[in-house]
Write a structure and sequence with these properties.
Keywords: Metal-binding, Oxidoreductase, Zinc
GO molecular function, one term: oxidoreductase activity
Distance between the termini: 13 Å
Order of helices and strands: EEEHEEEEHEEEHHEHEHEHEHEHEHEHE
Radius of gyration: 20 Å
Family: Belongs to the zinc-containing alcohol dehydrogenase family.
InterPro entries: ADH-like_C, ADH-like_N, ADH_Zn_CS, ER, GroES-like_sf, NAD(P)-bd_dom_sf, Zn_alcohol_dh
Number of strands: 18
Cofactor: Zn(2+)
Bound molecules: manganese (II) ion, zinc ion
Length: 339
């Protein structure tokens, strides 16, 4: 069967490997039908993802059809369409013991630390498979994974209806967060450098928008919050100055969420955090949020159609990655297909 492997940074190969078989009683064999390309996949390709090891079959936005099940499996059956949990945790370390397996001490992320879903077949535990709603296409279902990341950050931020959320950056990560946050609180300020994205955020219900390139960011935040700053700020831009900007723009007793993976030092100061008693929290991956995301879709609260802008066959992965690297404005989500 075919698979896409990043041999080393900068080198992508379509390889032939043996089709997996079910070796564990609780495993299922999945025939892949769609796999998303994420910013972090591009990072592994370019060698800028500090977590990744090589060579690696990448892909963590994993959708397919159950082809075969092990003798102990009761939750899914052949023919079921599923999305696969990307987080593999040990179950007994300190984070796992307090229910936070997404930051397990032995964390393995499919497509990052262990082989992922850019391959025709994949064997995984049945407990990592989540049934897809019938009305959702396989390629749209890929968007459930970024949705779980968004739910995780809003959950870690303890976002409530009363909050004033400052969302910094509204690209692919930010717009997923926006969609979830909008379900929770009406008062959202979106800061971005693209007018087009700000326009889209307004159309989807952002209370205020700030162009970080042409407007005075801090002045605008204070203006839109009656002078006190946001109560919650989420960094979905993860750029060099973004954390410092958010520490300044967040009001007393607020929460500031980081989501970036940069290992570059960023300049901040303790006074901003101490004097306002801010909670600065990281949000990584997702902690059992697939069920939550799928329930939102079933309840009609979340519509994932239209987010996928381009598809490429698996064997054209090089072309897909080259295209992603052009940052063409028409790109929203690129999906690899397997037909
Ligand atoms: Mn992703
Ligand atoms: Zn663990």
């Amino acid at each position: 069967m075919k698979a896409v492997q990043i041999v080393r940074p900068g080198e992508l190969r379509v390889i032939d490997i043996e089709k997996p078989s079910i070796t564990q009683q609780d495993n299922v064999l999945i025939r892949m039908t769609a796999a998303g390309i994420c910013g972090s996949d591009l990072g592994i390709y370019h060698g800028t993802n500090a977590a990744a090891t090589y060579p690696r079959i990448i892909g963590h936005e994993i959708v397919g059809v159950v082809e075969e099940t092990g003798p102990d499996v009761t939750s899914v059956k052949p023919g079921d369409r599923v999305i696969v949990n990307q987080v593999v945790s040990c179950g007994h370390c300190y984070p796992c013991s307090i229910g936070r397996g997404n930051v397990c001490d032995q964390l393995k992320v499919r497509g990052v630390h262990i082989d992922g879903g850019y391959r025709e077949y994949l064997a995984v535990p049945a407990s990592d498979c989540y049934l897809l709603p019938d009305f959702l296409s396989d390629r749209d279902a890929v968007m459930i994974e970024p949705t779980t990341i968004a739910i995780q950050s809003c959950t870690r931020a303890e976002l409530t209806k009363e909050d004033t959320l400052l969302l910094y950056g509204c690209g692919s990560l930010g717009s997923s967060i926006f969609r979830i946050a909008r379900q929770i609180c009406p008062n959202i300020i979106v800061a971005e450098l693209s007018d087009e994205k700000l326009e889209a955020a307004r159309a989807q219900g952002a209370a205020h928008t700030i162009n970080t390139e042409t407007e005075n960011f801090l002045e605008r935040v204070l203006e839109y919050t009656g002078g006190r700053g946001s109560t919650v700020s989420i960094d979905a831009a993860c750029s060099k100055g973004s954390l410092m900007n958010l520490l300044k723009a967040t009001g007393n007793a607020g929460r500031v969420m980081t989501m970036g993976f940069s290992t570059e030092p960023a300049e901040i100061n303790q006074f901003l955090i101490t004097s306002k008693e801010l909670d600065v929290r990281g949000s990584r991956l997702q902690n059992r949020m697939f069920g939550t995301a799928i329930q939102m879709i079933l309840d009609g609260k979340l519509d994932l159609t239209g987010a996928v802008s381009h598809t490429f066959p698996l064997t054209d992965a090089q072309r897909a990655f080259d295209f992603a690297d052009t940052h063409d404005p028409s790109i929203r989500k690129i999906v690899l297909t397997f037909d």
